[in-house]
Amino acid sequence: STMRLLGVWKQSWIVVTLFAATAILPTSAPLANAQQANSDFKLAAEKSYVYGLGIVAMYRYYSGMALQEGGLNQLVHSRSFLKPGDKPGGEPNVDTYYSYGWFDLSEEPMVVSLPDFGDRYYVYQMNDIYGRNFHNVGNGLSGNFPEAYKGPYTFVLTPPGWTGEIPKELDEIKSPGKLVNVLYRIRLSDESEEGDEVHRLQDESLSLPLSAWLKGERNSICVKPKSQLGPMENVLVFKDGATGKDQRSPDYFAQLSKVLAYDPPNTPADQEFLANTLSKIGFDANGHFDFDSLSDAEQAALLDAQESGHDSVLAFIPNRGIKVGTAVFTSEHAGDYGSDWRLRAANCDH
Hints:
The chain is an alpha+beta fold. It has helices at residues 28-68, 191-203, 210-214, 252-262, 268-276, 296-316, 341-347; strands at residues 76-77, 96-104, 110-114, 122-128, 133-138, 153-158, 171-174, 179-187, 206-209, 322-324, 327-329.
């Protein structure tokens, strides 16, 4: 998965002193409830920051790959080995050419047609914007995989709730959301001898709308949806040397809200978090959020939560995998996080 971009507030208390010897003020219960509500909000705020960090990091990749680099409903091909600092998602392999981009299935399914790879390693990896690796195609997959994956192989990616007819020559892969991140790797060992062949395989890898496929088109065709998730605002996600203090931005939760509203949570764990935790800090059932509608104390609590929540993720990152001696290997739950929001955030730190 894929992913390093991502103040001190002092609360003032007004102390009212009443000089009344005989006055009995029934304030203990209301004050206790107010303090409890404040405590609940702060706890929900930090949980919500950690929950959203991986999603906002994925949104950053969408904003860069799809909108800035032109990879919306088409793939961008790298024509050489990636160099340090070139990161289409995660730490790059040093022996593969990459292609990358995002499909938006909000208007119709996308057909992907891959050429014959034979025994050449390739993986066509698909993730949703919630960091879930929901399907891979390729002959570089561990374990058993369909012989058809060696190619040529053609499939159609369908959005949630789609009920149209699937042509018999296409396998259907159901996407859990309308946005699909693609990371496509093709292996080679010698660029001078194999580069041209891999370029051909990239060019013969087609993506086009299902409607165009049904009309007989057999070329890559980019059709951008009329309604889109716009670019991410300038909110820091991860950056070398940055700490929690650098994450204090009133725009952070607005970016999370844009994703939730455009491509709603698609797993029970995400849906439950929206209903039971995000709702406590002001998110509605459709994922909308308005920072300005909160009280000054609540706004300050959110900024504090962003600072402490980010520092907690940074402290976790060195231990996020499986330790074998002095080495740390990627967690077996990477790409399928369940409700481990901290692991999802940590794995999107690139």
